Fold this sequence. Notes:
Layout (H helix, E strand, L loop, with lengths): L3 H11 L23 E5 L2 E4 L4 E5 L1 H4 L8 H11 L10 H13 L5 E5 L2 H16 L3 E5 L17 H4 L16 E4 L4 H11 L3 E6 L15 H12 L2 E6 L10 H6 L5 E4 L10 E5 L1 H4 L18 H14 L4 H19 L5 E6 L2 E6 L7 H6 L2 H13 L2 E3 L7 E2 L6 H12 L4
Parallel strand pairs: 3-13, 5-6, 5-7, 7-8, 8-9
Antiparallel strand pairs: 1-2, 2-3, 4-10, 9-10, 11-12, 12-14
Helix pairs in contact: 3-11, 4-11, 7-8, 12-15
Amino acid sequence: MRREKSEQAYREAVGFIPGGVNSPVRALKSVGASPVFIEKAKGCKLTDIDGNTFTDFCLSWGVFTLGHNHPVVNKAVRRAVSKGTSYGIPSLQETELARLVCSYIPGMERVRFVNSGTEAVMSAIRLARGYTGRNIVIKFDGCYHGHVDHMLVSAGSGVAGLGNSSSAGVPDNFVSYTISLPFNDTETVERVFEAKGKDIAAVILEPVPANMGVILPKEGFLYRLRELADQYGSLLVFDEVITGFRLSIGGVQQLFGIIPDLTAIGKIVGGGFPAAAFGGRADIMSLLAPDGPVYQAGTLSGNPVAMSAGIATLSLLSIEGFYRRLNRKADDFIQKLKESVSGKGIVINHIGSMFTLFFSEHEINSFEDVKKADQKRFGEFFRYMLARNFYISPSMFEASFISIAHDRKELDRFIETASKFQD
Length: 423
Ligand SMILES: *Cc1c(COP(=O)(O)O)cnc(C)c1O
């Protein structure tokens, strides 16, 4: 595989951009590789600047349920661009996407658009604190909620991949109201609520974590969090930035029937553009400026290009049977993949179209379990797959994804290739 142009591009990028990347995991450090620079993408395929093509299982971190560069989304975007790209004044597209989001996601009666998942979470937490008049926020080890100061405690995703789970530059005081607890450990959460319940503004979690690799919530875990939040007057906040519009049209909350007070979404909802949103109960959302005292704003928020991409995307995802087809394709793929790698010390966690391969002899149900998995072998596997033209998410602290554009031939080739790893 030719890599000269990507390697040269990387050397140049490093001279201007810290680490050569605008988001740390892209540097491929935790898997011992250097970045490929992408020229273009279409469907499930990426083409790099050396002319190599890859079947993409990262999909811009789960953004592209429909595959890259979908013609319908593309057309909507081009139409929007031809009318100007931002007004800083309301446009009809904002209400239209808001109407779609509120109609699909059960917990979102009102929604406000922002530009990134980080902003969505930051704003949801500020609102939860404003609403409850309390400060403490409970999160869970290995969940990632963007790079908000007070959420960078025992965080997953890129922070974990670099061998850390917090960040320099965050004053101790900023995290003094953050309590991070083990995921799936109901008893510990109960104990903390008993001790501090009246000071807890919110419990926030990825209801199906994807940022420590995919972890499934144990039976009853989400339900118990809902009960505890109600009992103590705290808010339950679901960070569905990855899972929103990934597992079903209504997210994990619809799938599991647990409705949070506030929800953050991102990734898919922007149709490939920088858009995200937070929303929830109308009475809570009414506390936001300009109606209420909780301030939040954004120059490019709700900009017509991103809104148009989101509308076109959701209109395709909401077609009857879409998720049934996607999930069946994914279930079938994972089932065959599991069979073909059995006996190799690989655990595959999966739900719907998201999955992670862990190199471990044990079940993986928590951040502690993930940290014990073999990161070095994961790196070897990543490089092995990359050399054979498959781009999986480059860390075991991440999920990989499939889209509706992945056809059987590509999926079978993935399985065959993976099954020959270290034979
Ligand atoms: C990606 C992600 C975020 C952060 O979103 P950005 O758009 O990268 O700021 C927050 N929460 C979860 C669960 C995510 O997967």
